[in-house]
Design brief:
alpha+beta, Aminopeptidase, 8-stranded mixed sheet
Amino acid sequence: MTTSYLRKATKADLPAILEIISEAKAYLKEQGINQWQSGYPTNQDIENDIQQQISYVLMVDGNIAGTAALWPDKDVNYDNIIDGSWRGNPDDTYMSIHRIAMSSKFRGQRLSEKMMSGLFTISTELGYNELRIDTHLKNKAMQKVITNNGFEYRGIIDFIDENEVDTKRYAYQLYLK
């Protein structure tokens, strides 16, 4: 039986997380998706997530299988939504899931569901019942992960990143009850 759980990332996890991010960038490129192809996320982004204690890793049988950042409060990238709207009060706080990726060694094992479940639990423990997430318009695999985990499509956002060429993202929202 496989043992899996989510925990906060530590500085010692940095090499494994950077490898997973690198693999994810290559995987997106192979699929012709230009998400994460202009430098983002940088090594410094990941280091900052760990320092701010918002970086999490999915552990499977003692190995780091996946990574994600769970941002508290408002995300400026979600301020302006096109062709849609957010549910709820605009002043409500929420958590955002960013930089989610699985190791190529664990891809295809439906572990993203375990990752999401862990992130949902952490969010509620921190007092948040609303989550937001976004992905590239061509990233069908991530869109499926997002909707299969209960998120509702809300519209398109224009991601703020001067290095990215294609900044449009599908935006999703989930309320935990």
